[in-house]
Amino acid sequence: MYDFDYRRPASLSDATALLSQDEDARALAGGQTLIPTLKQRLAQPSLLVDLSAIPALRAITATEGRVRIGAMATHATVAGSAAVRAVLPGLADLAAHIGDPQVRNRGTIGGSVANADPAADYPAALLALDAVIHTDRRDIAAGDFFTGLFETALAPGEIVTAIGVAAADHACYAKAPHPASRYALAGAFVVRRGGQVRVAVTGVADCVFRWTAAETALAADFSPAALSGLTLPANGLNADMHASAEYRAHLAGVLVRRAVG
What we know:
The protein is α+β, with helices and mostly antiparallel strands. The chain is built from eleven helices and 14 strands.
């Protein structure tokens, strides 16, 4: 691990000021990815700005069928939040199955979203739910936020402050977890609001994406049977020692059916 300075500001304005003063500074949320990266000397920030002492970034509020989740809310907090469960129990269930208890009690929703790991769970939920990612500078639709492998629309020094999502008639996540890391070999989040259906798939490609063919089929008939014969093309999907591209494509189809119910 390389040397770095460390600051733990008590307000968002202080955090943004620190990040703006040093182009090599990095924001620290739960540290579940950043700390191992530093230990392996794969990153060399000059300054870490710890966001854990900013109370406003941990708040969760629900109003009129919407829930706003502070970026520093841990996965365990999201899973156990009465406000989240009242609006979107499927999102709370997703959070309850991220990693292991240690990860759920340290990792944060904002850190996960900003990291944009291709096998993370939250990106599928946010994309399917048409969520809004609030930052210290603007609001970004989930469809515009995730741009590639560990890449997002965030500008240097921009901080995710909260996630905003609306209730749905149906919102469910299903995944095939890696047995060690609990990341998704494949995962699918299915949302229905009235006649509109959105299906987001994670773990199978470089970036979370919507499976539009499945959306069309489910909009006509919201049942597992509607997906009969529908196969996700394997071209360009991830392949590694854990699963081939073809297997991940098959898993995606199975998981979408499970998420439909």
